[in-house]
Amino acid sequence: MTSLSAKDKNTVKAFWAKISPNAAAIGADALSRMLVVYPQTKTYFAHWKDLSPGSAPVKKHGATVMGGVADAVAKIDNLTAGLLNLSELHAFTLRVDPANFKILAHNILVVLAITFPNDFTPEVHVAMDKFLAAVALALSEKYR
Amino acid sequence: MVEWTEQERSIITSIFSNLDYEDVGPKALSRCLIVYPWTQRYFASFGNLYNADAIKTNPNIQAHGTRVLHGLDRAVKNMDNIKSTYAELSVLHSEKLHVDPDNFKLLADCLTIVIAAKMGSGFTPEMQATFQKFLAVVVSALGRQYH
């Protein structure tokens, strides 16, 4: 597992500053896509009335998830410590299989490409991919 | 045997008929080499890959990216036979090129992202699902003859 270089962190912070006004919409779109493209992920949301793209629970939860990502950006220098509470939540309460973090990350990247086709260069892509992988690792810390 | 609905077939043909292979192919391949640098191991003879700019402007990478897209075209035209269409290519990638088949998925993900950037919101969740299903079948066929 690689750690984030100073260049990675700066790239992530700069790109995040650009995209954060759209964070909730990005989260909603990414989550919508995940539920459609990877139907097995719907098993975690059987308690929602409506799992269709852009539905109210999907929008709300997309915003929640991106709030977590924003928090991770702010705590990028120590993700393990910074995301401890979220890790406990995912490990003991939600019990999301960590393979799904990768799936959601992929869909976030797809939405970033759609929303920011010129800014989401390969250089930004690699930094964001590494960052989301580091977030996933921090979230998995408390699992076992 | 992979089942395709009429809608899935028309989504795939529509995506590919609106593509400039000479633009999308090189973009996808160079993105793969930048985002997953270990994939550069297969292109040692291609010249300068020392940084992102060198990769993006390398003429061998551009030519190869275009070739890969034209290779995908064969699957588009033979959607009911992708496994047999790619049998020879699978042997080539295994026996001659010695490519780890996990790398096919990495290139597929980069291609998805390049297409998403190009199509914008026109790349709906349904189109993404169909496109990724298509690429998964291609990836599986390319790995089929490894032993």
Automatic annotation (TrEMBL), chain A:
InterPro entries: Globin (IPR000971), Globin-like_sf (IPR009050), Globin/Proto (IPR012292), Hemoglobin_a-typ (IPR002338), Hemoglobin_oxygen_transport (IPR050056). Keywords: Heme, Iron, Metal-binding, Oxygen transport, Transport. Residues 3-144 form the Globin domain. It comes from the Eukaryota. Involved in oxygen transport from gills to the various peripheral tissues. Belongs to the globin family. This is Globin domain-containing protein. It comes from Characodon lateralis. The lineage of its organism: Eukaryota, Metazoa, Chordata, Craniata, Vertebrata.
UniProtKB/TrEMBL annotation, chain B:
Keywords: Heme, Iron, Metal-binding, Oxygen transport, Transport. InterPro entries: Globin (IPR000971), Globin-like_sf (IPR009050), Globin/Proto (IPR012292), Hemoglobin_b (IPR002337), Hemoglobin_oxygen_transport (IPR050056). SUPFAM superfamilies: Globin-like. Residues 3-147 form the Globin domain. It comes from the Eukaryota. Pfam families: Globin. The keyword Heme applies. Belongs to the globin family. PANTHER family: HEMOGLOBIN FAMILY MEMBER (PTHR11442), HEMOGLOBIN SUBUNIT EPSILON (PTHR11442:SF7). This is Hemoglobin subunit beta-1. The lineage of its organism: Eukaryota, Metazoa, Chordata, Craniata, Vertebrata. The gene is HBB1_3.
